[in-house]
Amino acid sequence: EAVARWREEGRVAVWLRVPILQSGFAAAAASQGFAFHHAEQGSSTLALWLGEGPSRLPGYASHQLGVAGAVLDESTGKVLVVQDRNRTINAWKFPGGLSNPGEDIGDTAVREVFEETGIKSEFKSILSIRQQHKHPGAFGKSDMYIICRLEPSSFTISFCQQECLRCEWMDLDELARTKHATPITSNVAKLLLYGYREGFEKIDITMREFPAVYTGLFYKLYHRELPESYRNIT
């Protein structure tokens, strides 16, 4: 009866949130045409398309976001690297991990670096973005992996032995040349070395915050730095 009424009212879609302790209702909803859209820890959300033609409802999140921090000590030319304990091949990489919901990219990099190495740092820029589809670690979904340039504010390593096998400050030039680094680490190390020698403005993707079209919300825009004369064009 409810579905018929919704159609009469001209609704094009209906969303149904089912708490985990009442999951039995999902079967009853499915018998009326509802299908799972997504699930979270305490509930699942089902959707029913009532409009004409194929469903135009947006899909749920298709990517997970990983962030790493390339912490460079400009006074020594050394960069912070780790070897993961859970890898079969002990290759050097930048410390990092998955971003939490609602967490900014730079904040993830700073947090993950501190959790893994004990080093405090400050976000400076984005260096690279990797996109990989059908990622085994993302249940076959797509994976975005962002590497940020960070500036250290502490230097004594106290690494997490549950996650890391080794952690050290390595010469950036050595990291760019070694065969004992992951491919993405090796490539970004070369990019970072170029910026270190020739100027970070040649490689940095910086961040600016703007008000969103939704009242009270803001977004962060990442792009190459604009000259002042272009930023102020009206």
UniProtKB/TrEMBL annotation:
<dbReference type="InterPro" id="IPR000086">
    <property type="entry name" value="NUDIX_hydrolase_dom"/>
</dbReference>
<dbReference type="GO" id="GO:0051287">
    <property type="term" value="F:NAD binding"/>
</dbReference>
<protein>
    <recommendedName>
        <fullName>Nucleoside diphosphate-linked moiety X motif 6</fullName>
        <ecNumber>3.6.1.-</ecNumber>
    </recommendedName>
</protein>
<dbReference type="GO" id="GO:0005634">
    <property type="term" value="C:nucleus"/>
</dbReference>
<keyword id="KW-0378">Hydrolase</keyword>
<comment type="function">
    <text>May contribute to the regulation of cell proliferation.</text>
</comment>
<dbReference type="GO" id="GO:0005739">
    <property type="term" value="C:mitochondrion"/>
</dbReference>
<comment type="subunit">
    <text>Monomer and homodimer.</text>
</comment>
<dbReference type="Pfam" id="PF18290">
    <property type="entry name" value="Nudix_hydro"/>
</dbReference>
<dbReference type="InterPro" id="IPR040618">
    <property type="entry name" value="Pre-Nudix"/>
</dbReference>
<dbReference type="InterPro" id="IPR020084">
    <property type="entry name" value="NUDIX_hydrolase_CS"/>
</dbReference>
<keyword id="KW-0963">Cytoplasm</keyword>
<keyword id="KW-0496">Mitochondrion</keyword>
<feature type="domain" description="Nudix hydrolase">
    <location>
        <begin position="62"/>
        <end position="197"/>
    </location>
</feature>
<keyword id="KW-0539">Nucleus</keyword>
<dbReference type="GO" id="GO:0047631">
    <property type="term" value="F:ADP-ribose diphosphatase activity"/>
</dbReference>
<dbReference type="InterPro" id="IPR003293">
    <property type="entry name" value="Nudix_hydrolase6-like"/>
</dbReference>
<dbReference type="GO" id="GO:0035529">
    <property type="term" value="F:NADH pyrophosphatase activity"/>
</dbReference>
<dbReference type="Pfam" id="PF00293">
    <property type="entry name" value="NUDIX"/>
</dbReference>
<comment type="similarity">
    <text>Belongs to the Nudix hydrolase family.</text>
</comment>
<dbReference type="InterPro" id="IPR015797">
    <property type="entry name" value="NUDIX_hydrolase-like_dom_sf"/>
</dbReference>
